[in-house]
Amino acid sequence: MLWLNGKPGPALYLFMPKAATIENDGNITFVRFEKTWMALHLINATAGGVDAEATKAACSDSKGKETRPDDQIWSARTQAQTLCGMAIELGEQESHGDYDAFKAAVKSRSKVDASRLAEKRVDFVGCKGEQVGLVWAEGLPGVFRGGREHDWKNHWALWAHADGGKAPVSLGWKQGMLRVEAGGRVFEGTLKDGAYSFINQ
């Protein structure tokens, strides 16, 4: 996944469980959760680590009582006057075997290509060869999957496959209808004029 911010100079914040192990390795921050591992590839940003002040503000009420005792806020500092963001990839035992193998694969194979940053474009290749690209824009961004540009005119529906094929979950853009088709069954929920109806077959 690629995420870009077009506003210069903000800090980036993410909620993280306190039980997670967070380690920085160059421009990659690795996060080890209970069963899932995450690699954050920072783009024009530097890992700041756990931010005690932001954690207190986000995880406590106005009287200072902890409301989210198991959470903390991780932050990264961005460079002023430039596009910033991150590429995120995930791993699990099923995909990589163990955490050390995930880290090794990420460090040796993953690549953020920010050479076209002047065009507001960043490309990313994950450790398993998946390719995504993003061109930041005020309106619809340019999205690339597997080297092919996403055609917004033909792919308005949320959760659509990159090739426009049938997806098991579809939510038509501003149509008010959710359709889920799986295991030979169909669920359709429709919201129209404030009334919700559904079928489940």
Low-pLDDT sequence parts: none
Reported for the largest beta sheet, the result is: 5 strands, antiparallel
Structural class: mainly beta
User: How many structural domains?
Assistant: 2
* Cα gyration radius (Å): 20 Å
Q: List the helices and strands in order.
A: EEEEEEHEEHHEEEEEEEEE
Beta fraction: over 45%
Average of per-residue pLDDT values = 89
Distance between the termini: 34 Å
> What's the total count of β strands?
17
- How helix-rich are the residues, as a percent range? 10-25%
Strand arrangement in the largest pleated sheet: 1-8-5-4-3
Structure description:
The chain is mainly beta and 201 residues long. It folds into two domains: 2-150, no CATH class; 152-201, no CATH class. It contains three helices and 17 strands. It has helices at residues 52-59, 93-96, 99-109, and strands spanning 2-5, 11-17, 21-25, 28-32, 36-43, 45-50, 71-78, 84-92, 111-113, 121-125, 131-135, 142-145, 148-149, 169-171, 177-182, 185-192, 195-200. The protein has a five-stranded antiparallel beta sheet with strand order 1-8-5-4-3. Strand 14 (169-171) and strand 15 (177-182) form a beta hairpin. The longest helix is centred in the middle third of the chain and has 11 residues, at 99-109. The model has no long low-confidence stretch (mean pLDDT 89).
Task: Compile the SSE list and pairings.
Elements: E1 2-5, E2 11-17, E3 21-25, E4 28-32, E5 36-43, E6 45-50, H1 52-59, E7 71-78, E8 84-92, H2 93-96, H3 99-109, E9 111-113, E10 121-125, E11 131-135, E12 142-145, E13 148-149, E14 169-171, E15 177-182, E16 185-192, E17 195-200
